[in-house]
Every structure is written in C-alpha cells, then in structure tokens.
Task: inverse folding
C-alpha cells in the first residue's frame, strides 16, 4: 500500500511532499483530512488529501455504531469518489468545489487528492451567519439544483450516487426511527419521505449542506462546497432547510425565513430560465418545492428526534414548522 506521501509524489510528479497538518479527523474514526506541501521542480503548492480507512467498525461518538451504520458510511465515501470522478465536471464554474487531482482505492483504503481551497482564496469558515451572509450559499444551492434538475428521472438515476440523497434519509436510519418517542411525527415518517420522493421535480441535493461544509472566499461574495458523501436524488428544499437550520438562530429564522426562501427561489428561477428552461417550468418547480419546504424540515426533525432529541436544533420554531408539515399531510 502506498503511503499518502508517496501517492501524492507520484500523482503530481513532485520532488518532495511534506505533511503540514491534520485539518480534520473523519467522523467516527474513519480517517483524516490533511494538508500537504508539494514541492515541484519550479514551484510549490499545498494540496488536501482525504484518507479513508474502513477495515473495521469504529466507535460512534453517540453510540450509534452498528453494521448498518458502518455500511452506510463506507458507501458514502464511495459515493463521494463517484461524485468527483463522474459527476463534478457537469457543474458550472459558479458552483465551486475543490478540483480532484487524483484518487486511489485499494483494499481497505481510499485516497482523494484535491485542490486546497484555502490557497484558491476560499479560506473563511463560519459556524453561524448573519442572515445576509446566507445569500451567497443560497445562490450556490440554487445553481447546483438547477443544473441537475431532471423531471421524472429514470429509476437508475443518479448512477453511482445515493438514490435518495441526505444522510438522514429514512431508509438508511431505521435504528433512529425505532427509538423515537411514539407520536404523530414517528407515525408520519413514511408519509413525509413519500411526499419528498413523489415530487415530479427531482434534482441532485448536496445532502449535508451545513454551513461548516461551505468555504467562503476572502471577500465573502463567493463560496465553495465540500464533503459530497451524501449527494443524491432529492428536492432542493432539503438542502435549503438543513443549511438554514445549521447557521441561523431561532430568532433569525423567525424574522427572515420567508425573505431567504424568496432569495433562493428567485435565484433558482433565474438559473433555470438562463439554462433555456421555460418560465412556466421554473414557476412549477418553485411552487412545488415551496410547498415541500415544511415537509423537508419535518423530515430532518424526524431524524433528530431519534438520533438526539436533546439537540439544540430541536427548537420551538422547528417544532412549529414540523407541526405545519404534519397538518399539510392531512389536508
């Protein structure tokens, strides 16, 4: 098995390779993301290496380790490799993400060698945002969703990615559903899932669009996304709901949600029309996904109430949106 340093050296025809730092350990001990300095004959640069090891079931920080969770995680890394090697080139320049430089899968190890976004100017990270700062991400999501919109897709689409995107998709989370408290939300889980899957306007969703997975440019008017382990079929508001819930307080959501949804849908319509789609189609997609926003929110709330019901995201605001979705299912 090649060491990371030797793999990078061969892939980039480097003179020398040095590990600078571990940027992040992967969830549950599956590996690491590290920064390396690469010296070539006439220049040097930094690169990012994602090293994944899956020879055994690691421990989960919340006690959720199981064969199913291990299989889900292993598949997620294969999906990420498929994304970068088969799908990423379809995205326009405005849908920025790290460029894949090379990759290797051998035995129980995978290497993904990527551009260092910090070196490309995307060096700002946020845990929370002012509501105005969300606009650049909402525009990124709108562009991403418009590019991959595919009404009534074939059953084998999207090849190599998740048939249902997002890390909280019901079919992959039976353990969390099982431990939910009995009640209306638990009983409605399947109906929430069906409502999202039955939308005639499917696209690719990022599937883990939290604010931590967006790298902001130094001037904050551009953004790039990382971590495509859960990219797959879905409706755009699944990403929008998860993103807004990850970066805004309950008070910010109360005050600005409708405005931010308008920002997203306006940009989505603009992108679709710019791609040659009709204004009627853009309007139909907008209306359908706007109707599904509370459903998408409640679908994540369903996961949260099984995974960690004491989580800070379980707010009164979130419960109200969820209640609205449950009423919507009955109407």
Result:
């Amino acid at each position: 098995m090649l060491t990371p340093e030797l793999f990078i050296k061969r892939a980039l025809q480097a003179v020398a390779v040095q590990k600078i730092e571990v940027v992040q350990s992967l969830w549950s001990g599956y590996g690491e993301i590290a920064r390396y300095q690469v010296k070539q004959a006439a220049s040097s640069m930094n690169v990012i290496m994602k090293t994944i090891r899956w020879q055994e079931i690691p421990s989960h920080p919340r006690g959720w380790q199981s064969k199913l969770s291990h299989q889900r995680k292993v598949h997620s890394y294969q999906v990420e490799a498929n994304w970068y090697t088969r799908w990423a080139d379809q995205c326009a320049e405005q849908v920025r993400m790290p460029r894949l430089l090379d990759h290797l899968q051998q035995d129980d190890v995978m290497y993904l060698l990527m551009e260092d976004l910090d070196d490309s100017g995307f060096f700002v990270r946020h845990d929370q945002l002012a509501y105005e700062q969300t606009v650049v991400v909402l525009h990124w999501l709108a562009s991403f969703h418009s590019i991959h919109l595919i009404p009534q897709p074939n059953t084998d689409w999207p090849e190599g990615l998740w048939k249902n995107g997002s890390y909280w998709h019901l079919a992959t989370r039976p353990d969390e559903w099982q431990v939910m408290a009995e009640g209306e939300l638990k009983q409605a889980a399947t109906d929430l899932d069906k409502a999202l899957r039955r939308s005639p306007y499917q696209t690719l969703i990022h599937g883990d669009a939290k604010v931590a997975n967006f790298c902001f440019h130094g001037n904050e008017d551009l953004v790039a996304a990382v971590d495509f382990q859960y990219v797959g079929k879905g409706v755009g508001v699944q990403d929008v709901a998860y993103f807004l819930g990850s970066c805004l307080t309950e008070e910010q959501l109360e005050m600005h949600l409708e405005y931010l949804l308008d920002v997203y849908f306006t940009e989505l319509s603009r992108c679709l029309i710019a791609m040659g789609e009709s204004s009627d189609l853009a309007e139909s997609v907008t209306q359908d996904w706007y109707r599904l926003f509370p459903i998408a929110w409640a679908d994540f709330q369903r996961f949260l109430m099984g995974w960690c019901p004491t989580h800070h995201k379980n707010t009164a605001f979130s419960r109200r949106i969820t209640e609205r979705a449950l009423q919507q299912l009955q109407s």
Notes: The chain is about 45% helix and 20% strand. The domain at 4-115 is CATH 3.30.200.20 (Phosphorylase Kinase; domain 1). The longest helix spans residues 279-307. The beta strands are 16-25, 31-39, 44-53, 100-106, 109-115, 150-151, 201-205, 214-216, 223-225, 232-234.
